[in-house]
Write a structure and sequence with these properties.
The structure is a single chain. With about 190 residues, the chain is α+β, with helices and mostly antiparallel strands. It has a domain at about 65-135. The chain is about 20% helix and about 20% strand. The strands form two sheets. Strands 1-2-3 form a three-stranded antiparallel β-sheet, with no helix packed on it. A three-stranded antiparallel β-sheet has the order 4-5-6, with no helix packed on it.
C-alpha cells in the first residue's frame, strides 16, 4: 500500500506541476477598451441620427418681386412680403437699402418670369413674381366701383276720368288646323 500511495502522490505532483507552470505563463486579461475602434467603425453598428446644426432663418421665405424695371441709371426692384403688407423695399443695382442688395437679375420677355437674386447679411435668395399677391387690391386702394342697379321705369298713372282701354286678348291657336275640332278631341290632346 505504501507503494501505491507513493505512486499516487507522485502522479499528483506530475499532473499538478504542469498546471502550476501554465498558470504563471497566462497573459494578463485585456480590457474591453481595445475593441472600441472596431465598434465605432463597424458596418453592422446601429445607425445614430446626425444632429444637424441649427438652421438660420431664411430672410426671404415670404418675399416676392412686386415690380422690376430697367433704367439707364441701373436696374430697379420692388420687393414685398406676403405676411407683412407694410414691408416694401425699393432696391437698385447702385446701392443696397437696409442691408438688402441686388446680386443678379435674370430678365425675361414673358410677363412674371423675371427672377432676381438678392442678398442680405451674406445670405442669398432667388425671388420671383407672385401673381396672386400682385393681383390683390391693396388695403389703401379702393376696389372696382360697384355696378349700379338697373333703374325701374317710372310708374305712370292715368289721369282720373279717362276710360281704360280693353286689354288685348289673343285668340286660341289650334294645333292641327286641318282636323275638325270637337269638344272631346280638344281634351284628349
Amino acid at each position: 500500500m505504501i507503494v501505491k500511495l507513493r505512486i499516487t502522490i507522485t502522479s499528483v505532483f506530475v499532473v499538478a506541476a504542469p498546471i502550476l507552470v501554465r498558470a504563471d505563463d497566462l497573459p494578463v486579461r485585456l480590457s474591453f477598451q481595445r475593441y472600441n475602434g472596431i465598434l465605432e467603425h463597424s458596418p453592422f453598428a446601429v445607425a445614430t441620427a446626425v444632429v444637424a446644426p441649427a438652421a438660420t432663418p431664411n430672410f426671404a421665405k415670404d418675399l416676392y418681386i412686386a415690380n422690376a424695371a430697367k433704367s439707364p441709371d441701373g436696374d430697379m426692384l420692388t420687393i414685398a412680403s406676403m405676411t407683412d403688407k407694410e414691408f416694401k423695399k425699393y432696391l437698385t443695382t447702385k446701392r443696397p437699402e437696409d442691408g438688402y442688395a441686388i446680386a443678379n437679375i435674370e430678365w425675361s420677355e414673358e410677363v412674371g418670369k423675371t427672377k432676381a437674386t438678392i442678398s442680405k447679411d451674406g445670405q442669398y435668395a432667388v425671388l420671383t413674381f407672385n401673381q396672386a399677391e400682385i393681383s390683390k387690391p391693396a388695403p389703401n386702394r379702393p376696389g372696382p366701383a360697384p355696378v349700379p342697379a338697373p333703374q325701374q321705369p317710372p310708374n305712370f298713372q292715368r289721369p282720373v276720368g279717362l276710360p281704360t282701354p280693353a286689354p288685348h286678348v289673343r285668340g286660341v291657336i289650334q294645333r292641327n288646323p286641318q282636323a275638325p275640332t270637337t269638344p272631346n278631341s280638344a281634351i284628349e290632346d
